[in-house]
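in:
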C-alpha cells in the first residue's frame, strides 16, 4: 500500500494526482484480462482497452502545476470526456464528471467530498445511459455510492472510503450474472464494472492487493437447500463467494447454483442455512469442461 496516500486531513492536488496515477495503473495491469471478459453489450473484446485509453489520456492531460484538488479532478474529467473510447469510456467519463463537480472550489479533498463524488457519479452514469441495465458498471457505481454514504458517519479517512467503495463495487460486480443472463451464460462478470472496481481499489492505495481477474471458470456447485430462511438471505450469504449465483424455489426448498473458485466455502456457508441434498461439484476447467459448458 502507498502509505503516502493515507492522509487524514484531506488530499492535496499532488496527492490526488498520485492517487489517480495508481488507479490508472491498477486498471492498465488488467487490460487484457478485462478484454477477454467482455461479452456485454457486444462481445468485441475491447472494454479493457477502451477503459485504459480513456484513463491514460486523462492522466496525460494533467498539468503538474495545478495548485488545487478541484483543478486536478476537473482536468482529469474533461480529458476523459474528450478522449472517451467505447461504451465503457463514455460512462466512466460521466462518473469522473461527478467526481469533479463534487470537488468544485475545494483546494483539498475531504472525506465528505468522496461521499458526494460517488453520489453524483452514480446519478450522472445512470442519466447518461438511455436504457440502464443492472449487473453492469451502473450497478457497481451505485453500490459504491450507497456504501460510502452509510460509512460517512464513522469519521472514515479518504482511503478507507475508497476501500469501502471498491469492496461494494466488487460485490455488485460479482452479483452481475444474476441480473444479466449473458454474463451467466459465459461465466464472467461485466468487464467495465470490474475495471471500475479496480480503479477504486487503486484510489484506495490497494493496487498490489488486487486479485487476479484471469477468466477461469472454477467449479460449478449445485444443491437443494432445505431451510426456513428467506431467499434474499441465502443470496446475500453466497454472492461474494462466486458468480452466476441463482437461487430458485421457495417455501423451505431452494435449488442453488453458483460458479466459484472455492466450493468448500460455498458448501460451508450454505450449511449454516439448513440441510443440503443432491450436492454436485463440477470442475469447469477440467479436460473437456469448456466444450460441455458451451453445449449447455
Amino acid at each position: 500500500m502507498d502509505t503516502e496516500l493515507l492522509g487524514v486531513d484531506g488530499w492535496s492536488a499532488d496527492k490526488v494526482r498520485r492517487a489517480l496515477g495508481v488507479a490508472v495503473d491498477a486498471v492498465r495491469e488488467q487490460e487484457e484480462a478485462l478484454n477477454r471478459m467482455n461479452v456485454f453489450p457486444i462481445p468485441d473484446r475491447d472494454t479493457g482497452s477502451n477503459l485504459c485509453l480513456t484513463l491514460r489520456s486523462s492522466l496525460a492531460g494533467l498539468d503538474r502545476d495545478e495548485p488545487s484538488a478541484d483543478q486536478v479532478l476537473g482536468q482529469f474529467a474533461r480529458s476523459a470526456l474528450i478522449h472517451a473510447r467505447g461504451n465503457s469510456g463514455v460512462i466512466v467519463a460521466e462518473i469522473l464528471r461527478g467526481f469533479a463537480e463534487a470537488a468544485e472550489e475545494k483546494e483539498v479533498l475531504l472525506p465528505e467530498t468522496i461521499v458526494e463524488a460517488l453520489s453524483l457519479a452514480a446519478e450522472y452514469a445512470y442519466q447518461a445511459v438511455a436504457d440502464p441495465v443492472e449487473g453492469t458498471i451502473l450497478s457497481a457505481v451505485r453500490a459504491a455510492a450507497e456504501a460510502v454514504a452509510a460509512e460517512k458517519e464513522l469519521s472514515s479517512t479518504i482511503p478507507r472510503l475508497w476501500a469501502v467503495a471498491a469492496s461494494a463495487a466488487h460485490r455488485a460486480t460479482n452479483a452481475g450474472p444474476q441480473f444479466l443472463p449473458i454474463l451467466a451464460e459465459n461465466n464472467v462478470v461485466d468487464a467495465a464494472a470490474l475495471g471500475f472496481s479496480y480503479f477504486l481499489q487503486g484510489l484506495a492505495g490497494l493496487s498490489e492487493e488486487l486479485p487476479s481477474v484471469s477468466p477461469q471458470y472454477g467449479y460449478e456447485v449445485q444443491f437443494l437447500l432445505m431451510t426456513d430462511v428467506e431467499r434474499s438471505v441465502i443470496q446475500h450469504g453466497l454472492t461474494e463467494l462466486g458468480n452466476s449465483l441463482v437461487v430458485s424455489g421457495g417455501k423451505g426448498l431452494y435449488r442453488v447454483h453458483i460458479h466459484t473458485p472455492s466450493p468448500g466455502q460455498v458448501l460451508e456457508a450454505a450449511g449454516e442455512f439448513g440441510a443440503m441434498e443432491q450436492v454436485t461439484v463440477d470442475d469447469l476447467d477440467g479436460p473437456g469442461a469448456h466444450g460441455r459448458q458451451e453445449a449447455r
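note: The first strand starts at residue 219 and ends at 226.
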